[in-house]
Amino acid sequence: xxxxxTRALVLSGGGxxxxxWMAGYISALRGQGVDLGDADLIIGTSAGARxxxxxxxxxxxxxxxxxxxxxxxxxxxxATLPEFMAASMRIIAETPDKQQAARRVANMxxxxxxxxxxxxxxxxxxxxxxxxxxxAQRLLITAVDAETGHRAxxxxxxxxxxxxxxxxxxxxxxxxxxxTIDGRRYADGGTHSxxxxxxAAGHDVVIVLTPLPFxxxxxxxxxxxxxxxxxxxxxVLTADQESLAAIGPNPIAAEAVPAAVAAGVAxxxxxxxxxxxxxxxxxxxAA
Length: 287
Known about the structure:
alpha/beta
């Protein structure tokens, strides 16, 4: 019998405002004695990759302060997240094979006629993640190989730089330029799954945190991934109505960031009892 339960934290995609919401939520939980950074494994996808890296590298509090000020470097966008989701869902509906659907989504044409500036996006990622090295804590960052449609999971042993992995995980096809790592082009990890919770298999306790509401496809995707976790105790935490209102209809827009981070802090206070029940403090790390 195991003496200590192993824990995994899964942070989903959710746009710039969704990432700010997750950061505020996690930071506020820590202030109330529930430290999700105590996970044995942190898995991040898209905006969740950035939040996961902030948490694992110890820069989350710094990021929260920036989000509160609305201090997010500007990236000129030519489409909205709902437009990307609609285009992706059309491709998925036409392509029963999941891998081929991911490949097609990864290579979709620019939405709104052009992609955002790679330089502007690079500045944003670097500003929100000032730590350039992989942390000692186990961290998985998901992306999708644009040529094959296969999911990639970058970690400290993958040979990819942390900033490159995070940039690749959030490279929304049709909106941002894809990111080249070791000669291969990678797209947003959400092209495979917004969650990638199945990568937490083998852990006893798994928390999935997502700022985006479910549709039928997203719910079925997460349900299948949770089923793959077997007997693990799984808690799925989603943005409630107050938080969704703060995040707004286009979570990739930076304007909603201050309201989103504040909403994350407020919801953490509402959810704290549920978290304490499944994620008690570890005596060896409580300090």
